[in-house]
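call fold(seq) -> tokens
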Amino acid sequence: MAKAAITVKKLHYTYPNSTNEALHNVSLTIKEQEFVAIIGQTGSGKSTLVSLIDGLIKPSSGELNVVAGLEINATTKTEYLSKIHHQVGFVFQFPEQQLFAETVAEDIAFGPHNLGWPAKKIEKAVDEALKMVDLPLELKSHSPFALSGGQMRRVAIAGVLAMDPQILILDEPTAGLDTQATNDLLKLIKDLNEKGTTIIMVTHQMEQVAYYANHVIAMSNGQVVADTTPQQLFRDAQRLKKLSLTLPVSVEVAQFLSKDGITLKNTEPLTLDVLADEIAEAMRRKRK
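ret:
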């Protein structure tokens, strides 16, 4: 049975100079090597939750245990939080906007350099990170600003991966990318997960939740309102409607076909490929 990578207990958070809680009594567990999608409308508490997991802010009350027993609570000292950053990588929305160095290699090496790694270890980490994001080593000497948008985002992600985090948080990682760059980036994230990295992805895209996640956390008004699997979540169209979220196209089409008298064995096909197979099977059954 997989161990817990993150445990959140009765977490509360109120931003400075505010009287409204951004998070209220949040408890959850994320296991090692899970691919977790965190969903909800703007202002639901998603970004606050992942900022707490990464140690960017400290809870007002409650606690988090993050990999290997590292604990964050209201009294945690700021210098202790750097231990969290060694284990948890955070890829912000539009991470390419945070690129700054003259070369790709310098940008990727920034994090390891700040951790005090020796030069040979940093060089090896840079090369391995570029390979992980499927970029050629020849780009090391190039300016990151001369790359395509998708390549720039990969360089930014490589800078996080170079520190070898056990957990990778991504905030709307495909925002602003074209279809090909989106598919390539999601494949990269899926590959990292299959190699053992715990993934936490904040997203509004239900197709991405359906296709990639095995655990989904839905938030509303600073609270967790669903902590389940994609299959379970998408069975409850009314709950999604209340959360102002939509069904994946494949599930929506399956429900439409059911109302039209075409019964599928899998009533919540999470991808279009699965839906196509289900329709083909239903047609074969009908012809018999």
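Residues 179-194 form the longest helix (16 residues).
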